[in-house]
Amino acid sequence: MKIKIFIAALALFGSTACNQSFLDQVPLSQRSEANFYQTTADFNNAVIGLYATLRNGGLYGPGNGSLFSMSEISTDNTDLGTTRVPLLIGLFEIDDYLVTISNTVVTSCWIGHYQGVARTNAILDRLPTANVPQASKDRFEGEAKFMRALFYFNLVRFFGDVQLVTKEITSPYGANDLPRSLAAQVYELILSDLRAAEEKLPATIPAGEAGRASRWAAKTLLGKVLLTQRQFAPAAAKLKEVIDARAHDLLPSYAAVFAHTTSFVANREVIFAVQNLSGQIGQGGNMWSEWAPFNAGIPLLGVGGGTGNGFNRPTADMERAYEPGDLRKEASMLTSYRNAAGAVVSANYVVKFRQQGALAGDSDVDFPILRYADVLLMYAEAMNETGQTAEAATLLNQVRRRAGLADLTSLGQAEMRLALEQERRVELAFENHRWFDLVRTERFLPVLNGKGLRAQAFHRFYPIPQREIDLNRALTQNQGY
What we know:
Elements: H1 8-11, H2 40-53, H3 66-73, E1 78-79, H4 89-95, H5 104-126, H6 134-159, H7 183-200, H8 215-228, H9 232-245, E2 270-274, H10 287-291, H11 298-301, E3 313-314, H12 316-321, H13 328-332, E4 333-338, E5 344-350, E6 367-371, H14 372-385, H15 389-402, H16 413-427, H17 434-440, H18 444-450, H19 466-471
Antiparallel strand pairs: 1-3, 2-6, 4-5
Helix pairs in contact: 2-5, 2-6, 3-5, 5-6, 6-7, 7-8, 8-9, 8-14, 9-14, 14-15, 14-16, 15-16
């Protein structure tokens, strides 16, 4: 089962308010900011609204959302792969390393994440005085802080210093003079939120609430944050807690991790994901229809499945990255299809999130943000960086064996770094990890420039959207833009 995403419940309650008394009069038959956040059910709906934020076009979905573009198309994994038209200029700027300060994809990313932060702060500010049982308060606080940490973790990695908002803003001009805070301060909030979340979130999520954040999601994200900060020993300790708990594990089949037929409850590998639900209710996924080859149409997608837009096309270099016999390759990407005439058409396209027969934009396939294979590879990296390379090899080979590959042996620390880089690329392909990984390990320029891509040092951050600077003179621009 999947939790139902009620976007409307929270859409009414933004970060603005008005002081005119006639606007404060609320009919009893309607819900508004004035009479919401009262009951356990209200807060539950508000928290579910937080999860709905993940489907915002500035975050993880759907199809050609900002994160897919900014963390995959911006690397050697994929290119845009579709016809160059003015409507897609923001995407092509990212693909070409010519991102402007008015880039619509980047702007959408900034706005979408701060919408999530605003919703989180509204919950956290109102929860302490609400007439809600303490156990429910703890759960809601844990979920809200986990989500705020995720929002800020993406923001600080994409933009560096960002505006740090920890309280609800009730004035439309409340953030107009708020400067950027140092990235170190943002990380302090992220760590604080996740440490609170891991204490307050439940270890087990009931089947009827499958998909909500658990204690293990908070610990996994905390381990990832610590690894990003190069705190290798604390990262290893935290990730080991996830492994030792045995609440999650690798599925025997790599393809099954992403299959719509694998229920969320049964999918022990996925720790936290963006959920998609078919039924033409506006909650389906469109990665399959959007990422299929341009104009592939019915032969590939089926009747009603869309035409294929060619977004997020695997590069030739990505295709070559898979070792012979790697079972993940055909589960992740294909290089051809047959058209209506039966002829073979050469085209690279992602099949990891395929749901054959699904209507266009109405797939059930979820998108994993945190999964157990990532935990093993992060733990291996942390162990290697603390001089425990032999232990790192054991973890690396656990992932490789599932892919049908032989163990790697006798690797030194430097060799292990490259082996983990390679393994993360093919294991986590098209899941929004590549850009973050290359920046985190300071391999962004060596790897991309070595393949002829035009990345420059300042591209490790994206520009602060110009519309935000126009509204707030306290904001400064990132170097190079």
